[in-house]
Design a protein that fits this description.
Elements (H helix, E strand, L loop, with lengths): L1 H27 L7 H17 L4 H25 L4 H20 L3 E3 L6 H4 L6 H25 L1 H11 L1 H6 L4 H27 L1 E3 L6 H19 L4 H24 L7 H31 L1
Antiparallel strand pairs: 1-2
């Protein structure tokens, strides 16, 4: 049973970069980016093709992230230069990426069994699962420090200001369009990194593996946002940690639901109810506190 939950922990680590990417688009730029479904699969597809052509995992990593960044740039250009709604721009790029991914992969599914992956290139523990957890944890720790550093730089502050008040940043001479394009590139590079990790963890890449994956990322970010409101957290580093905690909670709920023997047909419903409770409880409690304080004034 413990291994069951360790597997959920490992999957949450692999999906953590995607959650961070959605955090950038949703909470920094206030953009609902649906490109995620396509760029996640793109990372897995590029990984599969490069590994089967005898590339090392470390050599494939920057190529995968670059591919995801290009997808984000396409969404950014459509949104900023053609003045198309960000949601529609993401849907257009996601739809186009399905054909791109299928062309790159060449078929619907490619196995990665018996290939040298990132998880077996670095060997620290004898147990395979522990070794996978160690490698994924190292990547997550690096991402936490890099993203925290980025968001605290002048460029990162400009990113956050663009999301909060684009009129003010434009009046200050900041190129909002360029900032958004770069931000979407970073977000989708992180999403592609998740595809890179999950493909190697599951030992296959599938053309349909990204369908609906944006819901997992959104759930993680919404859980993190609810916890942020609940705990009144403003520090950017702690907010990044909360996003990863949200990813972990999301996967643990799925694992717990399956461990209880609940019919897999109800899995999505249970997950939706859990996310709804996490998101709604802090807001309900705030409303109750507000009503209570108003009654006391009366």
């Amino acid at each position: 049973m413990s291994q069951f939950y360790l597997t959920a922990l490992q999957l949450s680590f692999c999906l953590g970069p995607m959650a961070l990417g959605i955090y950038i688009t949703m909470k920094v730029f206030n953009i609902p980016d649906i490109t995620t479904d396509g760029s996640y699969t793109l990372g897995a597809v590029v990984t599969a093709v490069l590994l089967t052509n005898h590339w090392t995992a470390l050599a494939a990593l920057p190529v995968c992230m670059l591919a995801g960044a290009v997808a984000g740039i396409c969404t950014g250009l459509i949104h900023t230069k053609l003045r198309i709604d960000a949601l529609l721009a993401g849907i257009l790029v996601m739809t186009g990426l399905y054909s791109v991914n299928l062309t790159i992969l060449g078929r619907s599914n490619v196995p990665l069994i018996n290939l040298q992956t990132l998880f077996n290139t670095i060997s620290v523990f004898k147990t395979e699962l522990y070794n996978q957890l160690f490698v994924a944890l190292i990547i997550i720790i690096l991402l936490i420090f890099l993203l925290r550093y980025l968001l605290l730089t002048d460029f990162g502050i400009a990113m956050r200001a663009t999301g909060n008040n684009p009129v003010m940043t434009k009046s200050m001479g900041i190129n909002n369009d360029m900032i958004k394009i770069i931000g979407l590139a970073i977000a989708n590079a992180l999403t592609s990194l998740s595809g890179f990790l999950v493909a190697q963890y599951q030992n296959f890449a599938d053309i349909n593996m990204g369908i609906g994956i944006v819901i997992t990322g959104l759930g993680s970010v919404l859980i993190a946002d609810a916890l942020r409101i609940w705990l009144n957290i403003t520090h950017i580093g702690l907010q990044i940690l909360l996003v990863l905690a949200g990813s972990l909670l999301f996967q643990l709920v799925l694992a717990f639901t399956l461990a209880m023997g609940i019919d897999p047909n109800f899995l999505k419903g249970v997950t939706a109810i859990f996310v709804l409770l996490i998101v709604a409880l802090p807001r309900v409690s705030q409303q109750l506190k507000g009503s209570f304080s108003n009654n006391n004034k009366i």
